[in-house]
Amino acid sequence: MQSTQSSASVPTDRATEFRPVEGGPNTTSAEALLIAAYFVLWALLFRFVLVSHRRQQVLTVRLDELERRLETNARSEP
Amino acid sequence: MRSGHGFLALFTITVAVVATLLAFVAFKVPVAQPEAGGLAQKIFYFHVPSAYAMYLSGAVCFVASAAYLLKLSERWNAWAHAAAECAALFGIIVLTSGPLWAKKAWGVYWTWDPRLTTSLLSCLIYIALVLLRTFGGAGEAERKFAAALGVLGTVNLPIIHYSVRKWGGNHPVVITKGGGGLGNDDMKLTLTVGFVAFTLLAVLLLWQRMRAHWLSSRVRLVEERALDLGLVKES
Question: Is residue B234 part of a domain?
Fold first, then answer.
């Protein structure tokens, strides 16, 4: 019963504080971190450029269409 | 037409320099000591240039926002909007690449170190600015408010730069004297290529985004004229 009570207080401490293990084995793979970092970089940059390029294409088409309509309207006016 | 050729030339040069940077990082630069993260330290060669590109975009945002407040011109507004987007993008790159490197070098992804905290703050300011400009409407009041935020938000950039010297923390000072990590000529050369690559990338993205916003404002103007003449229906 006592062990249940003492273990009940442990999760609270665990939930509020995380500490790195000083000098312990660092199991995170440097290769995985490096690849993840480069992947995120290029994914973000390519997406940014692609979205921007598509948006520009849509705007160019819209502008051409509007200018064509205005030109047609100006020609048809007496 | 000339602008299109200039953009294509800049794009080609940027791709070539970025490819050189990748080749240097992969084959030329040596792996750093384990305390610096070992192989993961190679993140450094675009993490630091990304932070510099965020400063550069932030500076453009500051100048363009101030110029917009003085002149209320569409062109300055387009530059300020583009610069805020680029600053947010490079800020996100810094704040994702940094923690991945920190996990290997420090053992944790994140710590409330002064430089990390002030960088996060700046990135959030630029994200807020982009959201405001995207969803806040295109009225003059909203644009002035966004421009004011663009001017005030940039104040945090020098604080990021000097925070590590004033308040210390985990983040090292590597580039200037007083801190050390670049004890190898190949490391220095690769970092220099990184700075050139990210300067070109920042200029290229700024230019592209500025053109998109400038085009968007032209579409709005022509649309208004067409609406007045009844040539298009209001959507």
Answer: no
